[in-house]
Amino acid sequence: MVDIQTPLTSTSPLVTEPAPRAPRQYRDRFLTFSPPAIGEEEIAAVVDTLRSGWITTGPKTREFERQFAASLQAEDALAVNSCTGALHIALAALGIGPGDEVITTTMTFCSTAHVIEHVGATSVLVDIEPDIMTMDPAAVAAAITPRTKAIIPVHYAGHPVDMNPIMALAEEHGIYVIEDAAHALPASYEDQPIGTIGHLTAFSFYATKNLTTAEGGMLTGSAELVERARIFSLHGMSRDAWKRYGVGGSWFYEVVEAGFKYNMTDIQAALGLVQLEKLTAMQNRRRLIMERYNQAFGARPEFQIPVERPNVDHALHLYVLRLNLDKFSVDRNRFVEEMFARNIGVSVHFIPVHLHPYYRDKYGWQPEDFPVAYREYQRMVSIPLHPQLTDTDVTDVIDAVLDVADIFGLEGKSA
Ligand SMILES: *Cc1c(COP(=O)(O)O)cnc(C)c1O
């Protein structure tokens, strides 16, 4: 361990009792939880697009769709401006609306549920499996009613949902499966790439995701469903602007749906094309960091490290460390404060949907209605996992975590 004896100021509210000794401060610069991995290649590609005379949806967007679909062996792909937009038009294109029920997990970002609300359907939340924290297929089975029209599995942290039972339920009941793969690029379940299993799959290219276009998303699926979604993605017009204004284009279009404005720009697609080339290298770096964390925390009784089932390839989007709270004198919130006090940015993924006032009040949910998600939420902390972390950064994160465990753990120091 680095041993710089620089105690934090005694006025800091974060490091007063019950600390048995002054914590060491390992870093003088704050380590951002998840900065974007943008290099000179991305910058050049964006500038090139700005000079090209075509900045919105056009040839680069089509090329990004083509390469993205090919990388997953998906039949078709539609680039949009967010994963939220992709999920929204998936539901709209499948005709889901008022009176319909859509099942998803409470352990997700709010937008997975918001889109169900946006189309006027009813959100039906289910609890999670304790090990991988994705939707529990038994809970899904129990939640199906004659009104259920779709299931939205979320590949939490990048670990695929147990898809076989979900797909079997969908087939048995004639229900659509729309996957929220915001964390799951690239991932696979029993050798099937995520993006090729359910009816439609939505990916996110938000700034913190494994591949970023600043803001952006992609929807994959069959050519027929993706074409239907494409119409919803741009005003419900029967042909898109690129085709209208390009060479050989026609002024004529028809509006066949009250569609949305969710198209991706060529500026974003230019970023995406470069990022796609770098994805394997970025994933390899994530893997090395994950392994160092597992090695550092796996033997410590204070922690539970992420579980990786043998039948999946994990996208390694988040490293969610779980605190064995009976081994700590402090709670998760204090643990988070202590990490920030050591200049390490951490986060919590996620505050379960059913705890948020909109959903709690609309559906009358209590914290204990989804006891596994509620329990895991209270002991989870996401530590930095991104490809630009240097080996020294990773050491700093490990030292900070172990220092907090040494000071606030009940086991006393090990090793
Ligand atoms: C980031 C995220 C989204 C939303 O993605 P956007 O591209 O920002 O719309 C949806 N679901 C999950 C699980 C996410 O983490």
In angstroms, what is the radius of gyration? Answer: 23 Å
What's the assembly state of these chains? single chain
The tally of beta strands, per DSSP, is 13
Described by the principal axes of the CA atoms, the overall outline is globular
Task: Report the total helices.
Answer: 13
How much of the sequence lies in strands comes to 5-15%
| Ends apart, CA distance between termini | 11 Å
Q: Sketch the major β-sheet.
A: 7 strands, mixed
Stretches where pLDDT is under 50 for at least 5 consecutive residues are 1-13
User: What is the helix/strand order?
Assistant: HHEHEHEHEHEEEEEHHHEEEHHHEH
Q: Number of domains in the coordinates?
A: 2
Which architecture of the largest domain does the CATH hierarchy give at level 2?
3-Layer(aba) Sandwich
Helix content: 25-40%
The H-level CATH homologous superfamily of the largest domain, spelled out, is: Type I PLP-dependent aspartate aminotransferase-like (Major domain)
Global mean pLDDT: 93
Major beta sheet, strand line-up:
1-9-8-5-4-2-3
CATH class of the largest domain: Alpha Beta
Q: Examine the coordinates and then state which fold CATH places here, giving the name of the CATH topology of the largest domain.
A: Aspartate Aminotransferase, domain 2
**Structural classification:** alpha/beta
**Distinct small-molecule ligands in the complex:** pyridoxal-5'-phosphate
